[in-house]
Design a protein that fits this description.
Helix content is about 20%, strand content about 35%. By secondary structure, it is an alpha+beta fold. GO terms for molecular function: dioxygenase activity; metal ion binding; methylmalonyl-CoA epimerase activity.
Length: about 160
Amino acid sequence: MSTMPAIRVDHVGIAVDSVPDAEGVLFALGCEKIHEERSEYGEFTWATYVLGDASRLELIAPDDGTNSFLTDFLERNGPGLHHVTLEVADLEAAVEALDAAGVSVVDRQTFEHWHETFVTPQNPTGVLFQLMEYREGYADDRAAGDRLFVHGAPVPDGRDSAR
């Protein structure tokens, strides 16, 4: 049986109609906004908020005039929990461990500074899990820098190679 590599909750993603309209609730809870950008997919904007020393929330809102998975989600469900992102030290090893446990993944994507895949919500938890492996350079061109990582660094992987 494959062993799951180092893993931790990176953030909880909340689907909203508008980041500016929704973030007041997060500010009232004591969150600090550290980042906002348009997605690599070009269909939504995401913003990251830190609460305390390690808790992080993400608001995701569709870009005006787009039809996407997010607009479909909001039409079906309204605003609310969209996904839980789990940061893994080694995405390939995580996929192997899930496969060995009979849990399949979908929509694998490779971007320049991260890799991701998803466990669909058609599982007994009903939750969409995003598994994400940060790669070297992820924080370099973003104003929040290393604050984008829980505790300021990617999850330790135990490997000698640079991430």
